[in-house]
Amino acid sequence: MLNKIHLISAWLLVALGLIHIGFTPFAYRQFTHNALWFVGAGLALVFAGFLNVAAARIAGQDKVVHRLCLIANASVFALFCVALSLLREPQVFVGLLLSAVAFVATIKQK
After folding, report:
1. How far apart are CA 99 and CA 9, in angstroms?
2. Measuring CA to CA, which residue among 81, 18, 21 is closest to residue 50?
3. From the CA atom positions of the chain, what is the Rg in Å?
4. 110, 104, 80: which is closest to 92 by C-alpha?
5. Would you call 53 helix, strand, or coil by DSSP?
6. 81 φψ region: left (φ > 0), alpha (ψ -120 to 50), beta (else)
7. Which of 43, 41, 49, 52 is closest to 83 using CA atoms?
8. How far apart (Å, rounded) are the C-alpha atoms in residues 35 and 25?
9. Helix H or strand E segment including 16
10. How many CB atoms lie within 10 A of CB 65?
């Protein structure tokens, strides 16, 4: 059951990242360095989600993947906590929840 929850949260992180990237033209009229950072943040979510998919599929069989996933999830969760102090928007709450679920699932998967 925990593995399914982990996979669902992982794919939802990927979806959140893709949606974030998709909103770039609406947030920025021109492709500036700020727009590039915006896209980069979305890509970071996509990559974190992919790492969680890999970790959930091997379910603790590879200690390096497990540790990398823990580091990625802790980092994403911390960044969403910081983002929450600056932005009280729905996507930040969703990201915070998804990253917390992925982080706890990774911890429990040893």
Report:
1. 8
2. 18
3. 14
4. 80
5. helix
6. alpha
7. 41
8. 8
9. helix 2-22
10. 16
Cα–Cα distance measured from residue 35 to residue 55, given in angstroms and rounded to the nearest whole number: 30
For residues 20 and 41, is the Cβ–Cβ distance under 8 A?
yes
* Amino acid identity at 99: S
> Are the C-beta atoms of 21 and 42 separated by less than 8 Å?
yes
Q: How far is CA 54 from CA 5, 51, 98, in A?
A: 14, 5, 16
**Separation of alpha carbons 102 and 8, rounded Å:** 9
pLDDT, one tens digit for every residue, the chain (110 residues):
889 999 999 999 999 999 999 999 999 999 999 999 999 999 999 999 999 999 999 887 889 999 999 999 999 999 999 999 999 999 999 999 999 999 999 999 87
